[in-house]
Amino acid sequence: FSLLTASLMMARQRYFKRLFAYSTLENVNLGLIGLIVSQPLGALLLFLTHAFGKTGAFLSSGVYMEELRTKKIEDVEKRAGLSRPTNASLFLSSLAVTGTPPFGTFVGELLIFIKVSQISLPLLAVMLASAAIAFVSVNYNVTRMLKPKEERKYDGILGYISLASALISLIIGVVALEVIQ
């Protein structure tokens, strides 16, 4: 119930930091289900890589809030956005927290989904629907933020730190895929 609720709340979110906060609820619930169905490796990978991806998302969101003086997705889309590396960080972080291959969150979710498929197909259907809603909600809104009417230059250190955090999630995923094979 919490997993589906968090995903549905993301679908109607208008504030980018809240969007990422609901994404955390969705990922934590996926990880907890992983622990419940005895898939600790999937849960560990999901929690670890989500933490790095979410750090990048919140740091880059913080830069957006500070530089643009807004929390609304619509304001960023209609007014001004930021230049790289903050845009790159926001984009990669959104992919990381939504379980896009080959990020580590994808590997963790995949292991959990495989285990759940052996136990309960109705639960798997709810989990897949929630993951799909979360993926579309986060990435649609972040894409809107990355295509503003005008762009403001920002090359502060937080942009690079948030980008590194998102890349760590990607590196862990690539390594995990190699190890699992």
Which range does the strand content fall in? under 5%
Strand order of the largest sheet: 1-2
Number of strands: 2
pLDDT below 50 for ≥5 consecutive residues: which ranges? none
Spatial gap, N to C terminus = 33 Å
Helix content: over 70%
Shape: globular
Count of DSSP-assigned helices:
8
SSE string, helix = H, strand = E? HHHHEHHHEH
Secondary structural class: mainly alpha
Overall description:
- The protein has 181 residues and is mainly α.
- Helices cover 78% and strands 3% of the residues.
- Strands 1-2 form a two-stranded parallel ribbon.
- The longest helix is centred in the N-terminal third of the chain and has 29 residues, at 40-68.
- The mean pLDDT is 89.
